[in-house]
Specification:
By secondary structure, the chain is an alpha+beta fold. It has a domain of 60 residues: Ribosomal Protein L30, Chain: A. The protein has five helices and four strands; from the N terminus they run αααβαβαββ. α4 crosses α5. The radius of gyration is 30 Å and the shape is flat. The N and C termini lie far apart (86 Å).
């Protein structure tokens, strides 16, 4: 004789209760966007024209747009070992230095924080001076 099937609510031993529906948040009203003239006092058409010219001027001066100058001494750091198979901490240091793959070079300020990161993974990176390894 087959056994009687119990309802799903009693199989787990508890009663089947649905959680109360969460209260709905009121919809946010769409606010109109401000034109560029509101904050700078320059009409939007002229502001857009100035933004389009900015990269051309920066390239003409020999600087990269968005690049920050590093005051004082700098280090050129080259990755010469792969991070594959290294502990996660060492991979994180490579990423924080901005190194992505072997033979990739980056310029960083010469300060104790960067020196400490380089000293933590000496088997993966080198400090480069005058275009050759130090």
């Amino acid at each position: 004789m087959p056994s009687e099937k119990r309802p799903a609510a009693t199989r787990s031993g508890g009663t089947a209760r649905r959680p109360a529906p969460a209260a709905k948040k009121p919809a946010r009203k769409a606010t109109p966007r401000r034109a560029a003239a509101d904050t700078t006092g320059v009409p939007a058409a002229e502001a857009g024209a100035r933004v389009a010219e900015a990269p051309a001027v920066a390239v003409a001066e020999g600087t990269t747009p968005g690049a920050r100058p590093t005051p004082g001494r700098t280090l050129v750091i080259e990755q010469y070992g792969s991070g594959i198979g290294c502990p996660f901490r060492q991979k994180r240091i490579l990423k924080s230095l901005g190194l992505r793959h072997p033979h990739h070079r980056v310029v960083r300020p010469d300060n104790p924080a960067v020196r400490g990161m380089v000293n933590a993974i000496p088997h993966l990176v080198r400090i480069v001076e005058d275009g050759r390894a130090a």
